[in-house]
Protein: Holliday junction branch migration complex subunit RuvB
Amino acid sequence: MNGYDETDIPEPDRLVAPGADGEDTAVEAALRPKDLGEFVGQEKVRQQLDLVLKAAKQRGATADHVLLSGAPGLGKTTLSMIIAAEMGAPIRITSGPAIQHAGDLAAILSSLQEGEVLFLDEIHRMSRPAEEMLYMAMEDFRVDVIVGKGPGATAIPLELPPFTLVGATTRAGLLPPPLRDRFGFTGHMEFYAPEELERVVHRSARLLDVEIDTAGAAEIAGRSRGTPRIANRLLRRVRDYAQVRADGVITREVAGTALQVYEVDARGLDRLDRAVLEALLKLFGGGPVGLSTLAVAVGEERETVEEVAEPFLVREGLLARTPRGRVATPAAWAHLGLVPPQQAGGGPRGQQGLFGA
Structure:
């Protein structure tokens, strides 16, 4: 691990950014489902989690520790709150970056009540000493508090009440195996299908008292990059447009025009995404081109292009990472309405890099 993390990058002010800002946090609190029955999507995780929680309640025991992994904005925090609600327990919320010393974690653990849910977001960013303390806390409900330094240091055992740890991570591969293995249930959050996001949009519209038709909800869902948080953010911006420049009703036409104003196209690409594709296609003929060169061409930091723009472009099949550099796919040319230059072999330039070279 090189110490670099995508959450260290100051992400641009993007309407399609998967991370939450202050407004998102406030609105999400009102829109969050309160139980598993209300939660939209993630069918397998919901069913499995439902069994885990019901079995624990029937035994009269605390639920097993839960690890939720997946991209930002898919509902990990919401599920942690639902777990607490289903178990009838309070929830304590903190994050990995906030726990930089073992003493920070000891202070939190020692104040937990019996059965309480501890939600630890971005758990992979916790310090190593705190990680090692968490092993014992999860397995034996005990921690050793070190008093003093050097040869005179003394370990004082501290018994903890049974609790449930819910860990959330966007990078499960960075979790050390000893920590990962101590979770009784692991759920991976998938990106949402358009029809699931339509249900999210309709539900949010009802809660926000926004009038929207089926086609309008489908238009927003199709541009939401498979992420409920982005769907809710786009809904709020389209609501603003409909209120100011239309009759307040969100139709397909209103949604499409509003999102055009906010520079979010039909596939959910925004200004940065299109700038990367346009540079790759127009300046470099579709590639292959090195990441640093591509970043200079769009006037962004290398890390911003790699961690903010590329994941979605790769997932959409518009860009490929190859040993020779970044390569545009035929779908990228088609999406921007450009004709790829022809190589001597008869195929679009850059096509060779997709299959190795």
